[in-house]
Amino acid sequence: MKKLLEELAKIDGAFQAWSDFANAGEMGETDLDHLQGCVQRAIETKGWIWTVTKEDSQSPYAIDGTPYSVVIFNDQIDILIEDVYADSPAKAILACYLSAMRSQP
Predict the structure, then answer these.
(1) Residue 51 pairs with which residues in a beta bridge?
(2) Is residue 89 within 8 Å of residue 67, measured between CB atoms?
(3) DSSP code for 13
(4) Which of 14, 35, 40, 58 shows the greatest Cβ crowding within 10 Å of its Cβ?
(5) Is residue 101 pLDDT above 70, yes or no?
């Protein structure tokens, strides 16, 4: 998570405080929930649409037992980044947002 937050701070300076926070220690569940909300709002600010899906960890759709997947669409409903998987919705949406931002010209 620390590496993801460091990259986020580089890509989107509005998130610098999150990188600093992660360097201070372990993030709790409430912190992750708040981070997820911040990333969702950042995605929406760009006019993009996001979905978070949770599969049973034993499901064949759960890659390596990671049950959360995220897809981000642009305003034309074209998929920007598809199926980023993680073990929490916050990590999945953060990783997907970073991938979407990297893909932008």
Answers:
(1) 71
(2) no
(3) G
(4) 35
(5) yes
- Concatenated DSSP letters of 14-70: GGHHHHHHHHHS---HHHHHHHHHHHHHHHHHTT-EEEEEE--TTSTTSBTTB-EEE
The mean pLDDT of the chain is 79
The CATH number of the domain holding residue 47 is: 3.30.160
Token duo for residue 104: 């932008």
**Tens-place pLDDT, residues 10-58:** 888 777 777 666 666 677 888 888 889 989 999 998 899 898 888 776 6
> CA–CA distance from 23 to each of 16, 20, 27, 69 (Å)?
11, 5, 10, 26
Domain encompassing residue 98: 2-102
Domain count, the chain: 1
Report the Cα 14 to chain-centroid distance in Å: 15
Structure tokens at 69: 């997947």
Q: Would the pLDDT of 59 be above 80?
A: no
Token code pair at residue 15: 């998130």
